[in-house]
From TrEMBL:
Residues 28-104 form the 2Fe-2S ferredoxin-type domain. This is Aldehyde dehydrogenase iron-sulfur subunit. Its EC number is 1.2.99.6. It comes from Xenophilus arseniciresistens. Residues 1-12 have a biased composition (Basic and acidic residues).
C-alpha cells in the first residue's frame, strides 16, 4: 500500500520523482495609473479589473453588482472610455489610465457631474451612483467626439444631447430605486454647464 507524504504544501503536488510542483495560479505584474497615481500590482491573471480596484487597491466606490456586465454598477473610465470593469481582466490594461469615482472629485471639490447629481437628487440608495456618474462622464465625452448611438437618427450628423440620446447611452446602467428622471436631469445640467 502506497504512503502519502503529508508534509507537502497544500498547493503543491508530488511529481513522479516526489519533487513538489507549484500549483498556484499564474500571476502577472500589472502597471496601471489609477486616479492619477502609478500603481503596480502582482495579480492572478484571472483577476478582473473590478477585483483589482476593490480587493487590491481598496477603491470600493466601484461596485460589484451583477458581476455579469448587466447592471453598470462597476463602470469606470479606462483611458477615458467607460467600461464594465467586471468583464475586463486587469492584465488587459497594462499601462492604462483608470479613473474611478474616487478619482473624479472629492466631497470638497466635486466633479461637475457629481455636483449635478447632488443638485438634482440623482440617487436614492446610492449603490449604482458611482457607475452612473462614471458612465455619464464617458457618455458626454462620446458626444463631444461625435460617437453615434443606436438612437442617433443620422449617423452623418453630430449627435445631439437629446433625452433619447442620453437614455440610450445610459441604458447599461440600472437603478433599482428608479431615480432615472433625476439622473437624466443631472446629466443634462452637467452637459449644459460643460458647453
Amino acid at each position: 500500500m502506497p504512503t502519502h507524504d503529508l508534509s507537502l504544501h497544500q498547493d503543491s503536488r508530488p511529481t513522479s520523482t516526489g519533487t513538489p510542483v507549484d500549483d498556484s495560479p499564474p500571476s502577472f505584474q500589472v502597471r496601471l495609473v489609477v486616479n492619477g497615481r502609478p500603481r503596480t500590482l502582482k495579480l492572478d491573471t484571472r483577476t478582473t479589473l473590478l477585483d483589482a480596484l476593490r480587493e487590491h487597491l481598496q477603491l470600493w466606490g466601484t461596485k460589484k453588482g451583477c458581476d455579469h456586465g448587466q447592471c453598470g454598477a462597476c463602470t469606470a473610465l479606462v483611458d477615458g472610455r467607460r467600461i464594465n470593469t467586471c468583464l475586463s481582466l486587469a492584465v488587459m490594461h497594462e499601462g492604462s489610465e483608470v479613473t474611478t469615482i474616487e478619482g473624479l472629485g472629492t466631497p470638497a471639490q466635486m466633479h461637475p457631474m457629481q455636483a449635478a447629481f447632488v443638485r438634482h437628487d440623482g440617487f436614492q440608495c446610492g449603490y449604482c451612483t458611482p457607475g452612473q456618474i462614471c458612465s455619464a462622464v464617458g457618455a458626454l465625452r462620446e458626444l463631444r467626439e461625435g460617437v453615434p448611438s443606436h438612437a442617433t437618427p443620422d449617423l452623418q450628423a453630430q449627435p445631439l444631447r437629446s433625452p433619447e440620446e442620453m437614455r440610450e447611452r445610459m441604458s447599461g446602467n440600472l437603478c433599482r430605486c428608479g431615480a432615472y428622471s433625476n439622473i437624466q436631469a443631472a446629466i443634462a445640467d452637467a452637459a449644459e454647464a460643460s458647453r
